[in-house]
């Protein structure tokens, strides 16, 4: 396991056991079996570690859900979308509770801007979902429908983040699909129009460039141990600079890396890049 990833995972365990404030850098390094100097080579401070953990969590969420929207069969896409999100919330509910309860760490202006950009990326994923699942049937109210879908997610996330109650996931997802279908079929007075949606999504979020993706790949390669994921990243980086690989080979390489914790975000960016290029 890469040192940076090890620090993040061990720190999360300590945060869950004793709280963020009560956890010191010394305790984190002791649990990892590394020196303080090694910690500060990866993170400038505990606050930076916390923000990196949050950033990694959000990237994994966006990457996983975007993959579902682009790769599941259209017939069950809406159900699979809700199920993937709720399973993610359920799986990581303890993580979320740590940060909901303790929000007194420093959040920089740059990180807030980054969160806004992530929200825009997720908005794009929801719009893709609506387009794939409903097509032209909801052209007049798709922005309002996308807003309602996100509202459902935020509302029902409380079942996992604020209330410790058992949830029948299948029934919940079926209910959400039913509600969404009713809104899609019967809304005649949409509130969120394309213009309003654009006003809500400022500052604008641009696609990552080829050079930016290559830089991110190089950063990860420097820390990765020899593995099929590392070999796949090398080939993907080479293809960005000198395209030669077929779509089938590219898809296979992306499948190789998408489950690796440090590669999820890169796999998302590459899928978006190649879709944009097409």
TrEMBL record:
DNA-binding region, residue intervals: 24-43
GO molecular function, one term: DNA binding
InterPro entries membership: Homeodomain-like_sf (IPR009057), HTH-type_Tx_Regulator (IPR050624), HTH_TetR (IPR001647)
Keywords annotated in UniProt: DNA-binding, Repressor
Signal peptide as annotated in the record: none
Domain HTH tetR-type: start-end pairs: 1-61
Pfam annotation, one family: TetR_N
Name this protein carries in UniProt: TetR/AcrR family transcriptional regulator
Originating species: Oceanobacillus piezotolerans
